[in-house]
Amino acid sequence: MKKKKAPKSPPVSQTQAEDAVRVLLRWAGDDPTREGLIDTPKRVVNAYKDWFSGYADDPADELRRTFEEVAGYDEMVVLRDIEFASHCEHHMAPIIGRAHVGYLPTNRVVGISKLARVVEIFARRLQVQEKLTSQIAHCIEDVLKPRGVGVVIDASHECMTTRGVNKTGVSMISSQMLGTFRTDARTRGEFLRFIDIDAPRRK
Length: 203
Known about the structure:
Blueprint: H1 14-28, H2 40-51, H3 59-62, E1 66-67, E2 77-88, E3 94-104, E4 109-110, H4 112-123, E5 126-127, H5 129-144, E6 148-157, H6 158-161, E7 172-179, H7 180-183, H8 185-194
Parallel strand pairs: 2-5
Antiparallel strand pairs: 1-4, 2-3, 3-6, 6-7
Helix pairs in contact: 1-2, 4-5
């Protein structure tokens, strides 16, 4: 017996979203009708539209236009230091970091700005870093069908640096290796050297 899908929630209007911000302002102990906060609900909702715009976009679409005239090029393609800002799905606090993306093409490559767009679209959703890393890698693998994909993300989490344990200067590194990046230590090591992260030594 198939499990029934939960019905979709009705869309939330701009007015409803702004009212929710006013409730949070009152809950925090302030007065949303005072001069400095009158326009805050509208500003917050508009900021959320930007921060979470990734839900409206399909990252796979960014990778479907490829180029085959590459003169037989079949070596690694790496895009380093893709800066991004995301939000933690547990506390809705910012995740600020950089993504490094590499792949081994088969017979086609994609414009490098498209790789950055894939990172951006997934980042502009509520995330945990491990999921973000995996989503980027599997999207590239599914659409481009390369011989291998590597994604490494280095990010700081304000849910930890500004609350809770309050440990500043801490960053988290996550990686997802697929295809030859997972099975071939030399390929993986080359990728890590390109992004200036040493491959772990194995005994």
